[in-house]
Structures
1.
Amino acid sequence: MNEEALKKAVAQLVACLLSDQAGGSCENGPVPVELSARHVHLSEKDAIALFGAPLTHARDLSQPGQFLCKERVRLIGPKGVMDNVAVLGPSRGASQVEISRTDARALGVDAPVRQSGDTAGTPGMVLASQNAIIGLTEGVIVAARHIHMTPRDAARFGVKDGDRVGVRLDSERPLVLEDVLIRVSDTFSLAMHIDADEGNSAGWKKGVDGVITSRN
């Protein structure tokens, strides 16, 4: 074990011990696994340009304050289009399109794997509604697989915001996914998000859980 790996192992052990002293334990799971299909986040300006009004709530999502909107958009890329794409609210400061690698090939865009919100230097795309068309100069990404958790969850699992872990999906076709980003906030609810490509490869279905297998 090299020095850097030893430091990480010691840090994780300390986190677990502190969690034990607080009455918890250093756990590995279960972590609910949710499929995040292709979707769009819109700025209020772009929402109004496309729909003539701010976004409207259809139903709540698992993350507190997040919701599916009644509005839908068409994605228009150099090689193809995708209709009826979900829009998620609330509005953000900048618009963002999250697709899978398979989607990116079909649309003809070279979308990089990025954490949500990290869109600098990414490709753009045309978005269309029934009434309008807008062009994004950047904002198209393949979202990095990640786990949302609260600080209390992070203490239980012995991790911190920005860590990377391996997770085994207990699905029809069990699969270990590495380099899973940990995202910690008081506003989150415990859930791992994967895209359609990852879900299909693991035979994901609703109710699948994951177990942390490694901490990097």
Note: Residues 3-21 form the longest helix (19 residues).
2.
Amino acid sequence: MKKWPMFFAIYFCVCLLEACGASGSGAPVPGGAPSSEEQSGGEATQPAAVTTVCRVVSNDGSLLLAGMDGDPNIYTLTPEDDTNLAAGALVEVTYDGTVLESWPAQFSGVSAVETAEGGFDDRCALYLQVLEDLWEVDSGLNGDVTYIGVDLSATSLTDSERAAVAWAFAGKHGGELVTGTWEELAEQGYIDRENLYWEDGILFSIAEKEMGGVYSLTPVTFDAEKWRSGLGAYFFFDCTSVQTSGGHWDGYTIGGEAIS
């Protein structure tokens, strides 16, 4: 009868020794993940480099970029080397595949920023200039503004380009950015629909218009407006700009102006 306690004691010691040996053999701990060395057979792996194409929206030492090819994000990037990249250029950014979740977003582990071939189009810079010109006229409408609304939904800019232009403009003037049409902002409670008034904000909008005829260069016609109330607004009518063969929008002319 006394042999059984001795047997269980020996069996317990054997199991304990096997467990200790397994814990030091490099086997994964339950709930843990294998190291990069274990995944690669003993050699540490490096993150795969990723290259993405973006549009330069502005360059003041730090690049403001709009994602291309369906990428809705906007990015800020300060290259290690001085760069003369102009607004409108396409760039290829090579990074480690990680994007920091900020707004604008930021690339992690950038290893190269290079100009992409072709595709130059500085319509973003054109519309930023239009918004600035609207800000300057009838400046009394800009007083006591907390929110700056921007509506570029009726332009041919991509979603990311619209977001970048709106962010740059609102940030320059210290306002909290909201985007949307007049109706959308009224629905969200920013604009007092009944009294036609935005007490603590002002809405800037640009809307492109169709043009008939055949042209040797590419033109665009648009209206632009800043709106504070039914009795406080300023309008640019029938503005026209022409894109050169190199992709540059060479300023714009205003067909007419109005105030209410």
Note: The first helix runs from residue 3 to 23.
3.
Amino acid sequence: MNIRKILLATTCASIAAPAIADVNIYTTRQPELIQPVMDAFTAETGIAANLAFVEDGLVERLKAEGARSPADLVMTVDIANLKQIVDAGVIQPVESETIDAAIPAQLRSADNLWFGLTTRARIVYASKDRVAEGEVTTYEDLASDKWEGRICTRSGLHNYNLALLSALITHDGEEAAKDWATGVKANLARKPEGNDRAQVRAIWAGECDISLGNTYYMGLMLQDEEQTEWANAVQIIFPNFENGGTHVNISGVAMTNAAPNKEEALQLMEFLVSPEAQGIYAELNNEYPVLEGAPVSDLVASWGEFTPDSIDLTEVAGHRPAALRIMEEVDYDG
């Protein structure tokens, strides 16, 4: 075969077997938390999943890039962040029977714009020594004066606490939510500061008896030699709303309007709700799978069972402006 025939054969082969496209993901989650899932997807499909960490300004970046954006998907935490992306008009609906079958209706948008991937409960960390069994009951009860001087929290303006207050507005109304925020502030042992793990450290140090926190922080603390002692000083308690279940929030995914690799992006979305991917999430990140029947890690299972609140997360996100206004009016962090 001469050189001309070799070149022709090579060219025809490359046309017949085009390179598989990558999937590009903008994520507000630390990439190391989701890289193992991406690696499993690549191993199964041959499609590379490229993570770009966008700590701030995700919506602004997508707006600025417009149709030229290289991002196929966005992955973030907190229902308020997902609603912000929806309101900005930078994502498109996705139709998939596979995804719809895997994710409960309350954990995905009715118009198929965003989809929950994992859940985390907003629970109470309580001192093993200073909090009696059955003493923690409902979220509403945290405003009771029996907790005066016994509560630590991070800033009331943080997304996690705003989401909890938004859920309380959904259940009990704005007036009751404002009374609650006022009552919890009056029960604080110190001015709000630090992150969720800092509150557990304060319990360990005897500064307060209970705090609000996300479940997966227990797993993170137990993996840190310095923080293990803090974690062992507390127990996880799952409060309920008086007329509901335990407050949960989500991590989620959405497809951008630009999505240059739409077909491959859909493959990744469907993989993310597969038993394999949900199992990786649960084992490595100590989160709860959205896929019914997917096992949680042994550590997460040891925390006990709870009934997730069933209210519509989109409605919860809609109350975020009111929650922010209430926290500012009561000067929660002051």
Note: Confidence is low (pLDDT under 50) at residues 1-18.
